[in-house]
Amino acid sequence: MAAAVELIALHKDFGKHEVLKGIDLAVEPGEVVVVIGPSGSGKSTMLRCINFLERPTSGTVTVLGQRLTAKGTQLMRVRRQVGMVFQHFNLFPHRTALQNVMEGPRVVLRVSKVEAEQRARALLDKVGVGDQADKKPNKLSGGQQQRVAIARALALDPQVMLFDEPTSALDPELRAEVLDVMRQLASEGMTMMIVTHEMHFARKVADRAFFLDGGVIVEEGLPAEMLERPKTERLNRFLNRIFWGEVPGAATAGETHLDPLDNKLDPT
Ligand SMILES: Nc1ncnc2c1ncn2[C@@H]1O[C@H](COP(=O)(O)OP(=O)(O)OP(=O)(O)O)[C@@H](O)[C@H]1O
Ligand SMILES: [Mg+2]
User: Fold this and answer.
1) In the predicted structure, residue 190 carries a pLDDT above the cut 70
2) How many domains does the chain have?
3) Predicted confidence (pLDDT) at residue 221 exceeds the cutoff of 80
4) Domain that holds residue 22
5) Residue 152 above 90 pLDDT?
6) Is 216 a domain residue?
7) What CATH number does residue 181 fall under?
8) Which of 14, 133, 162, 257 has the smallest number of CB atoms closer than 10 Å to its CB?
9) Mean pLDDT of 253-257
10) Higher pLDDT, 205 or 258
11) Mutate to test the pocket of ligand 1, among 11, 17, 19, 193 (most ligand atoms within 8 A of CB)
12) What pLDDT, on the 0 to 100 scale, is given for residue 248?
C-alpha cells in the first residue's frame, strides 16, 4: 500500500536560513506518529510543507499517492484531504462553533446548508461540544475551542490529520479533553502526524516517534523505546530539558536521562 505521507530529501530555506536539511520519512495509512524536537528545529515548517502552506525548496512531498511537488498536481484537491489543527485554534471569531464547522463544506465542497449543518452538529457531538454549537469562540474555553477546530478540520473528511502542538496553549486540565478526542480519532484509524510534547500521550497512542533537531531527523523509533532509551546525546539532552525545564537546579545536559514518562512534574 502506498504511504499516506512520504517526504524524500525535503529541504526548505527561508532566504539564507536553511531550516529543513533533508527530511526523509513515510507515514503509513492509519499510522499515528509524533514529532518532537526543540524550538526552531523545523517541526512546524515540516508540517506546513506537507499541505503546502509552505513550498519546499527541494525534495518531494507525496500525499495519498499524489506528488505535490510535481507540476500539474491539483493542490487544492490533495490539500482538502489533509486536515490541520494549530496551536492557537484559528477559529473565525465572528462565527459560532456550528458556523465554523459548516464553513469548509459549504465553500469548498458546496454541500447544501441543511446537509452541512447536520454534519457539523454530528461532528460537534463527536468531539463533545454539541451543546456549544451556537456560541462564538470567545465564549468557549480553550479546550472547547480546540475541539471545535478539530471538528472543523474533520468536516472536509480528511484522510490525514496534522496537529501542530494542539494542546500547548491550554491549561493542563483542558489538555486531557483535547487529547481524548485525538486518542479516539487514532483508535478509529485516522492517519495522524502530531507535533507535541505530551510524552504520556506519545507513548500510549503513537505508533512511532521522530526527533527533529536542526532540520534533520536525528532519531526515530517506537515512542516508549525512544523516550526511555535515547540513542543520541542530543535526544537525551532534549528529554532532560523538557522534563526538568521548569525545575530549579535540575539536571543539565550530560546527566543521566531520567524517565520523563510518568510525566508528573513534582519538584518536591
Ligand atoms: N515564514 C518564515 N520566514 C522566515 N523564517 C521562518 C519562517 N517560518 C519559520 N522560520 C524559521 O524557521 C525555523 C524553524 O521554525 P519552525 O516554526 O518550523 O520551528 P518549530 O520546530 O516548529 O519551533 P517551535 O517549537 O518554536 O514551534 C525558525 O528559525 C524560524 O524562525
Ligand atoms: Mg512550531
Assistant:
1) yes
2) 1
3) yes
4) 5-197
5) yes
6) no
7) 3.40.50.300
8) 14
9) 39
10) 205
11) 19
12) 36
